[in-house]
Amino acid sequence: MHAWLCQNPTGVDALTWTELPTPQPGAGEVLIEIKAASLNFPDLLIVQDKYQVKPPLPFVPGSEYAGVVQAVGDGVSHLQVGQHVACLSGTGGFATHTLAPAALCMPLPADFPFVDAAAFIMIYATSYHALADRAQLQAGETVLVLGAAGGVGTSAIQIAKALGARVIAAASSDEKCALCTSIGADATINYSTQDLREALKLLTGGKGPDVIYDPVGGDLAEPAFRSIAWRGRYLVVGFAAGSIPALPLNLTLLKGASIVGVFWGGFAKNEPKANASAMAELARWYAEGIIKPVIDRTLPMVELKAAYARMGSRGVKGKLVLVNDGQRA
């Protein structure tokens, strides 16, 4: 097997495409032949030693992937050799093969493409947990999605629409706004050229959005929160802008609003039955065509560094996916 090995987490340039022995699964594990793996923001942080989880060295980055089960370890009964699966295990995905905890593998129907499956769990599980569970989003409410053309942003648009909400998508270019419209956004704001607060006043008749979905953080957080509706819910999803904002807490008092943390990983660990139910619902929605990952492009696995560079350029719309064995979309 081959894998992108991180022996020193000083950045993307330190990764090396390395030949390694193909491992055998231990108890509770499966060996997966990886067909596709998506690039997520934590995959950038983890090779810079900036992520909250710091795996022991050396490690193979790549948190989310899909492929075919090649071998199963002792105690694994719900998966079998030849089965198609998707997995979000945190590491191991940027390779031709990996060992994965069987409990973290999502069995796939035969007609679920590997490229879509590799870009599915993280964004849709996060957005469903955020909007349906943490925000308790109701049909007819208005949702503002920041960073709306990114992976979690595009998934949030689709899920909010599936739940019956009106969606305002905010992104950094007209091209990205057009993408958001094409997947269901009711209105868009280009915050590179428009004043966010003024645009929200106009689009909501002065009321403001009921729910704000924020995977970006940074300078947009405070003006967005100042625009929130009475009893609004501000979802803290991530900090793709790089800086963690400090919101004046008096604003929560004045608006009767809530700041709500969204940590899908903790939810899945602490509430596995609720998470399993949510994943089943998402799988049904995919089968019915209600949701579908937006794929920016696919690249061969050996071009991982080019994928990282594209992510760093802020030009990605949806998800970047690395592929093995001719799985390019």
From TrEMBL:
Give the superkingdom in one word: Bacteria
- InterPro entries hit by this protein: ADH-like_C (IPR013149), ADH-like_N (IPR013154), ER (IPR020843), GroES-like_sf (IPR011032), NAD(P)-bd_dom_sf (IPR036291), Quin_OxRdtase/zeta-crystal_CS (IPR002364), Zn-ADH-like_protein (IPR051397)
Q: Which CDD domains match?
A: QOR1
Q: Which Pfam families match?
A: ADH_N, ADH_zinc_N
Q: Tell me its EC number(s), please.
A: 1.-.-.-
SUPFAM superfamilies in the cross-refs: GroES-like, NAD(P)-binding Rossmann-fold domains
Q: Where does the Enoyl reductase (ER) domain start and stop, copy by copy?
A: 11-322
Q: Which residues form a coiled coil?
A: none
The answer on whether this UniProt entry bears the keyword GTP-binding reads no
Q: What class of enzyme is it?
A: oxidoreductase
Write one Gene Ontology MF term: oxidoreductase activity
Which keywords does this Swiss-Prot/TrEMBL entry list?
A: Oxidoreductase
Q: Which PANTHER family does its entry note? A: QUINONE OXIDOREDUCTASE-LIKE PROTEIN 2 (PTHR43677:SF4), SHORT-CHAIN DEHYDROGENASE/REDUCTASE (PTHR43677)
In its UniProt entry, what is this protein called? NADPH:quinone oxidoreductase family protein
